[in-house]
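Standup notes
- HV: blocked on the assembly model, inputs below
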Amino acid sequence: MTHAQRLASVRHDLQQQQLDAFIVPHDDEHLGEYIPPYAERLDWLTGFTGSAGAAVVLARKAAVFVDGRYTVQVRHQCDASLFEYRHLIEQPLLDYVLSELNTGARVGFDPRLHSRSWFDAAQQKLAARGLQLVPVKHNPVDRHWHNRPEPTINPALLLSQEYSGQHSEAKRNRIAEQLAAGNIDAQLLTQAEPINWLLNIRGRDIPCLPAVLSFALLHKDGSVQLFAEPAKFEGLDLTAHCGHNVTLAPFNALEQALTELGNKGARVQLDPATANAWSSLVLEQAGAKIVFADDPCMLPKACKNPVEVQGSRAAHLRDGVAVCRFLAWLDRRLEQPAPEREDEGTLADKLLALRAEHADFVEPSFSTISALGPNAAMCHYHHDNGTPRKLGQDAIYLVDSGGQYLDGTTDITRTVAVGEPDDEMRKLFTLVLRGHIDLASARFPAGTGGLQLDALARMPLWQQGYNFDHGTGHGVGHYLSVHEGPQRISPKGSTVPLTTGMIVSNEPGYYRENAFGIRCENLEVVQPADTSGDIPVFEFENLTWVPFDRRLIDSNWLDARHIEWLNDYHATVWEKISPQLEGEDLTWLEQATRPL
Amino acid sequence: MTHAQRLASVRHDLQQQQLDAFIVPHDDEHLGEYIPPYAERLDWLTGFTGSAGAAVVLARKAAVFVDGRYTVQVRHQCDASLFEYRHLIEQPLLDYVLSELNTGARVGFDPRLHSRSWFDAAQQKLAARGLQLVPVKHNPVDRHWHNRPEPTINPALLLSQEYSGQHSEAKRNRIAEQLAAGNIDAQLLTQAEPINWLLNIRGRDIPCLPAVLSFALLHKDGSVQLFAEPAKFEGLDLTAHCGHNVTLAPFNALEQALTELGNKGARVQLDPATANAWSSLVLEQAGAKIVFADDPCMLPKACKNPVEVQGSRAAHLRDGVAVCRFLAWLDRRLEQPAPEREDEGTLADKLLALRAEHADFVEPSFSTISALGPNAAMCHYHHDNGTPRKLGQDAIYLVDSGGQYLDGTTDITRTVAVGEPDDEMRKLFTLVLRGHIDLASARFPAGTGGLQLDALARMPLWQQGYNFDHGTGHGVGHYLSVHEGPQRISPKGSTVPLTTGMIVSNEPGYYRENAFGIRCENLEVVQPADTSGDIPVFEFENLTWVPFDRRLIDSNWLDARHIEWLNDYHATVWEKISPQLEGEDLTWLEQATRPL
């Protein structure tokens, strides 16, 4: 089927269902960051493969909405004779709908693919202009998507307490007590990560996110109804792993379970920002009382226990060995003939191969950003979206990558010289690194949110009239998503206090369009600090151990204490990583970690 | 009348009006920071004279609610046999009411003395438990308050454009355009500061706040109805000053004006956080459509125009001369016989006398905090609340003071040695000063709020396990309130972006109970910075020019750049202040500003 035919078939359904518009978001029913191939409805309809976006189909027009990252890509991938292109933020989808349709129009949407918050806001916005938001029972895309990929049935993993550090029962009881105290009968969980954390299970449903896609109901007695594909658990003893009060049912049993709760008039809590509208509508129609609140798993999941922290340390050591071997190899490769035989793709492959040498490596934690010269100025660059750039023509190379290990998740960015960096590149690299060090050296009392610390990482750039247009740090899971909340270090960031066990990235950068890009990223875990002062304060314990490229450092832009920090850091890298290296790699590390 | 009699008379009124409770807040009908003596209802009823608090009278009990600053004072001032003491934040007034009264109870309040926001929240909270919030027509306190002070009739001042920098008409037209664009017919203004700013008037109704207490209606055509005591404007030509479309009426004409707006079905905007509930209830009952929004005067008032900035610079120079002369005198006085003849009161008086020598000095901008030794550990200490402490027994002295000048408002804190400070005091002073310098040296792009910068001033203390329990910086008016919004530098601070012309204080501190207190405060004005970077950034231009006490600095706790900043600062103090000093004062300044 061509995209024109697909569009026509959806339009045909619209007519049948008396709809004037139908909205196709990128999200699936879990509303998480990643979706599996069978949920790529936006791609099926429009050809757009980005990780965020939406489309709207009207009787005679259609439009694709993407954010700033994808304005070029959408033009390559979508047929302009079928779809207008719009900026998701600047020309929001609902504004487009309102500008195209008149009072009385019916706007269809699939309530499984939108959050409850979106639904409430959209309904109000459309109603104010006399339009009706209509939940469809059958998604027109699904009806016409022939040869749709089947969901992959990869076996689940029951994560032993040796890795998780806490039995599922203890986790469930702790949250169930909170539910009971709040007079809540059950908590609906709809995102994969909190459910996998709660039950100490993992999966391989989606690349990079080692989780079983699922829904769950956590009851106030600590019992859990898990809704997931049972075939993934074949041969696994979930009862022995979790206890008798965790039961497994297929996805299609969820509606019945929600209806039963509703029939009992239960008070059911859910997070309107992450739970799909469908589930809360089913609950409400059946008579449940809905309580909107943050997902209570998110905060305990974010605060890693000592076993998870120890696992993360171990994962980072082994990840550091792989990255050091890669950087040592890269430096050697540059000295050998024909460096231009390597490109961004072969570099990324080499790094992956080195990581994969370790038995506990499962998969990358996200799609590697391997970017030479001007490509590094695009924060979300991927070498597969065009022709990978060849080594040999640029001064600096940025590689942002990570691994999923059974005991932790890693995420590291290094920017290294692959040619002759000029003074300005070295100045800007040093300002970025200085910001990284200032944040890494921070201490702060209980109650401090990432929003309050973000400026530390930016101030050296701000002083000189520079900035970077992304957050400074995101939360990182434990053998789970490389992006997690609620902690976040960002100008628009979270006021959720940073506290013991939270893992965050520290990744200031600088990007000069069509020229180069710089980012310095380590992961850090929040720990109590030891002072002789009046009050307890926290500090960041560094997890990532890979040298920062001395060739890019201009110490004129550093204070004595930054140089001291770097020398200490490099001495520790040597101490931790050198026992795992040999030969030329070891020689490289010795050079790379000598004092400034 | 004793307080017991006063309480009994209020209870008598409660019975007559069939009320089970009556709430007496500290606020007056303008809900500003300061209230005049005739509005001290809380003091009349309870004897408590603090600047914030409330009381609630029940049939058989009564309670006074104060915050952490006043827990000692309230015990001195209020008769425990009449009033229970409660913590305003930890045991909120409405929770007390709910714990004492049953369903169906009627809780009286004077709608002129509470904000609309408070009213909405309180009504909801009480209604949820079946209690009724009843606005009283006649405040029982007012009915029984015999010998109540008359409002003082100090003449108003028409502030010439030489000081204000912008004609009232230009200010009014700019905001009126915004109102018209938002389809608003009129803006109700209820706080003294924005009205005085808008009309370029000033007054002497309240000590330290040079404003005419008033209400105003700003219409979408730029015309203003001002409601204030006409006697204050006798002999002044308000029409010549403001234009024919600014009219003056007495306070009691406001109700009629609001009713007329309501009868026309006008859309009237007001700030529910600062406008009293009475005005919006009158409007609603008369048929007006109320639009809740921030007071549109606040932001333009906060962004001083170049004339106001220049005026502030001049006011600070002259204020700096007075403070330098005071500190020089203090050092000499300590060398003379019997320093114990001076106490916190005589020191404050001396400083005021030196300020008052200048013709443009009007009054203090707030009540001077003159605190020796352990008294300085109380952030809101006032020497009049007990016996002023005598010079000669303590190591350090903290003086926080400011002046109202026709061309600007000042606020400065210096902490100085008056004995033998020990190493720990010097360490902590230096950490506070280091934080002050780090904030003063900040640069930041458009969109940065004070909340993002606050940690800069605290980080040196946080590093060593210390903190201070107040905001780092507040906005400061131009010959208006020494505390103004919306800008604020604080952990719970404002995300309103800091921008050109905003004046803020920079005042980190450290307080050790029963021992000593430290604070270093300058005022700073936000200005565009000059860089060769990619983006425009702002920086702080310093306004305050008085040396920091070199005897309290331990440079081991400073980096090279802090010492450079201090030496530059002191060189500039010398350059700006020395031409105004002579004799021993000049010698003192030379010593006080020599390089570290």
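- HV (later): unblocked. The interface with chain B takes residues 442-445, 447-448, 451-456, 459, 461-467, 491, 512, 529, 531-537, 559-561 of chain A (CB under 8 Å). Chain A has a mean pLDDT of 96.
- Next: hand off to the docking folks.
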